[in-house]
UniProtKB/TrEMBL annotation:
<dbReference type="InterPro" id="IPR013078">
    <property type="entry name" value="His_Pase_superF_clade-1"/>
</dbReference>
<dbReference type="InterPro" id="IPR029033">
    <property type="entry name" value="His_PPase_superfam"/>
</dbReference>
<protein>
    <submittedName>
        <fullName>Histidine phosphatase family protein</fullName>
    </submittedName>
</protein>
<dbReference type="Pfam" id="PF00300">
    <property type="entry name" value="His_Phos_1"/>
</dbReference>
Length: 164
């Protein structure tokens, strides 16, 4: 796995908000957010917008819970935000997440995806030590990691971690 170099200069990793349990016969892919999840998605999107965290491009898994979370971000950031849905993010590896980010030319890219891949991607970008220090209990639902490229040191650094 190769860690990407800019562009983008900023990466946002947003884990989908809390999902409902699967109904009998329902596929995992089709689980929507639960009531708490809908509220948390709106809150995290508003917090990100209030902090000026606005991606140039939002790339979301096509799973319903991710689309629901991405919709909240889209509403908070304004309808001009470019949103793309990518099937491979649903059952992706860290390499898939990194490759998708690395293929973008925009300055700031947001991925809306799933754990454990979201947590593993953050760790791949900032290192295991920084990951454990920042998130000792793991990557929570509706958690937003803001990662910036430090050109002087040629490394990615966690700038902020926004939670509900």
């Amino acid at each position: 796995m190769t860690v990407p170099l800019p562009p983008p200069n900023r990466i946002y990793l947003l884990r989908h908000a809390e999902a409902a349990r699967a109904e009998p016969g329902q596929r995992d892919f089709d689980r929507p957010l639960n009531e708490k999840g809908y509220g948390d998605a709106e809150i995290i999107a508003d917090k990100a917008a209030d902090k000026g965290y606005r991606p140039d491009l939002l790339i979301s898994s096509t799973a319903l819970r991710c689309r629901d979370t991405a919709d909240a971000v889209h509403r908070a950031m304004g309808l001009t935000l470019d949103v793309r849905y990518v099937d491979v993010l649903y059952d992706a590896t860290v390499d898939n997440y990194i490759e998708i980010v690395d293929a973008q030319d925009e300055a700031a890219v947001m991925l809306v995806g799933h754990n454990p891949t979201m947590e593993q991607t953050l760790e791949a970008l900032i290192g295991q030590k920084a990951m454990v220090k920042a998130l000792p209990h793991g990557f929570p639902t509706a958690g937003l990691a803001v990662i910036d490229f430090d050109a002087a040191a040629a490394v990615w650094r966690l700038t902020d971690f926004v939670v509900v």
